[in-house]
């Protein structure tokens, strides 16, 4: 099936067709990272926490997908265990497995429906980079058939699954767990398309040490350093992308704001002027722009490396967890947060020299912020 036919099929499908797509393109929570024997104990531990057993999980998970409408939770977790769109230190593909476990252990009050993980071929990024022969071969590997025309790359599968989710469950919101930050491209694109079609004015609140506003990186246009550039066209206006925590950039703030029309609040400004002062200005901007709903994309490296060293690109002089929470709490009090993600937690990648396991610190802080965002989606 060619690419145009895939696009047509994904535009509007019945609920039964969507259920079949989920059971093929997704897999049980924690299984999205492609392994043979690695981390079997960790996966079994997550299965026990989620389902009370380790056997027969595939069927239990498939049956759970039939109950999405029955749950009162608005928040739905989707794991995308891909770091192919990264490019510094790899390892963010373990984020969905580890962050889920940390949420269960440290934030037990959090409630959400778990859709599971996107099936990931770890060396693929987006279907548009593949020829038809490769796509057909990968379809046979993932789905044992190319007949249905399902996508095969993590970014393509994610957008397709999210499009169907918002079509059938418009009052629910997806919380994506990555994975490298390229994954926020399909998550936010799908969200923005759905909200635009529903007549909602939206803004993306983006926490990051980096602007992610490259046009391409080494010839690839969709990656962790460029995803923001390519979702601007789906926003009501470019300045509806508001970035917090920026500090690692080859160009200054005026370059990015004048070139792309976005709004930035660098880490040193938040530190010098105070998080509350900054967020008050942002709220005034959002109110003036008549924004209805927010999507929050959180790259863990927005936090200073003291709290977030287990990531591909840890950076000093960053935000504190308290500063991030001041901003998030203030925004959530004024606007519904109806979608969000947590990206770039790489538990096995720790560049710090701290004596204790700082991956535990990174996961702890990531879980706190994730729990807040999940609660916010449920309350929206």
TrEMBL record:
Keyword presence, DNA damage: no
Entries under PROSITE patterns matching the protein: ARGINASE_2
Keywords linked to the UniProt accession: Hydrolase, Metal-binding
Keyword Transferase: no
Superkingdom of the source species: Bacteria
A molecular-function term among this protein's GO annotations: metal ion binding
Gene3D superfamilies: Ureohydrolase domain
GO BP, sorted A to Z: putrescine biosynthetic process from arginine, via agmatine
Family of the protein in this entry: Belongs to the arginase family.
Identification of the protein by name: Putative manganese binding agmatinase (SpeB)
């Amino acid at each position: 099936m060619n690419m145009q036919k895939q696009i047509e099929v994904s535009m509007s499908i019945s609920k039964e067709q969507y259920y079949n797509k989920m059971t093929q393109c997704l897999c049980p929570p924690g299984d999205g990272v492609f392994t043979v024997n690695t981390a079997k104990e960790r996966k079994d531990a997550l299965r026990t926490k989620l389902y009370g057993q380790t056997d027969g999980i595939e069927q239990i998970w498939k049956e759970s997908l039939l109950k999405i409408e029955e749950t009162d939770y608005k928040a739905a977790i989707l794991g995308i265990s891909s770091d192919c769109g990264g490019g510094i230190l790899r390892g963010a593909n373990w984020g969905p497995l580890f962050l889920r476990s940390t949420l269960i252990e440290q934030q037990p009050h959090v409630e959400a429906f778990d859709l599971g993980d996107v099936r990931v071929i770890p060396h693929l990024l987006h279907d548009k980079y593949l020829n038809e022969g490769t796509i057909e071969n990968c379809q046979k590997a993932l789905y044992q058939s190319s007949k249905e025309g399902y996508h095969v790359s993590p970014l393509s599968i994610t957008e397709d699954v999210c499009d169907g989710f918002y079509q059938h469950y418009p009052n629910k919101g997806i919380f994506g767990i990555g994975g490298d930050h390229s994954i926020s491209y399909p998550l936010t694109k799908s969200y923005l398309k759905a909200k635009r079609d529903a007549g909602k004015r939206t803004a993306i609140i983006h926490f990051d040490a980096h602007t992610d506003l490259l046009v391409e990186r080494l010839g690839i246009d969709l990656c962790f350093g460029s995803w923001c550039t390519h979702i601007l066209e789906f926003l009501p206006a470019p300045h509806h992308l508001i970035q917090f925590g920026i500090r690692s950039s080859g160009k200054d703030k005026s370059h990015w704001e004048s070139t792309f029309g976005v709004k930035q609040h660098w880490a040193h400004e938040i530190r010098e002027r105070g998080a509350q002062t900054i967020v008050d200005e942002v709220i005034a901007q959002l109110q003036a722009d008549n924004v209805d709903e927010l999507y929050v994309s959180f790259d863990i490296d927005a936090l200073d490396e003291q709290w977030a060293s287990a990531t591909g690109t840890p950076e000093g002089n960053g935000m504190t967890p308290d500063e991030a929470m001041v901003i998030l709490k203030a925004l959530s009090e004024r606007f519904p947060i109806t979608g969000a993600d947590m990206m770039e937690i790489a538990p096995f990648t720790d560049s710090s020299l701290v004596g204790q396991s700082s991956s535990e610190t990174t996961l702890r802080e990531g879980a706190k912020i994730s729990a807040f965002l999940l609660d916010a989606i449920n309350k929206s």
